[in-house]
Design a protein that fits this description.
This protein is mainly α. Helices cover 85% and strands 0% of the residues. Helix 1 packs antiparallel against helix 2. The radius of gyration is 28 Å and the shape is rod-shaped.
């Protein structure tokens, strides 16, 4: 989900930057300076968005996978303890 958001932001940045560049093509050196400033502003604006980068997303996915494994192990332990308790509390056939 966050990966898609980041991709859309990059696509938006590329599209807007390209359009501004097309508009400023005929302006020469002045246009180049304006384009750089616009790109800086766009980058700053995108950086403020609440999106995470792919590296952070992958780290969070790994942490979630580890947590899920720990939960499964705990569930197995609880099931085993419940089984032992039931066997201990069951009336003996002797």
């Amino acid at each position: 989900m966050a990966g898609n958001s980041s991709m859309r932001e990059r696509d938006l940045f590329t599209e807007v930057s390209g359009r501004i560049g097309d508009l400023l093509q005929s302006g020469g050196a002045a246009a180049s300076g304006v384009r750089e400033k616009v790109e800086q502003q766009l980058r700053a604006g995108l950086a403020e968005l609440s999106a995470i980068d792919r590296e952070e997303f992958d780290a969070q996915a790994r942490a979630l996978a580890r947590a899920e494994q720990r939960i499964e192990a705990l569930e197995e332990t609880v099931a085993e303890l419940e089984k032992r308790l039931a066997q201990r509390d069951a009336p003996s056939a002797q």
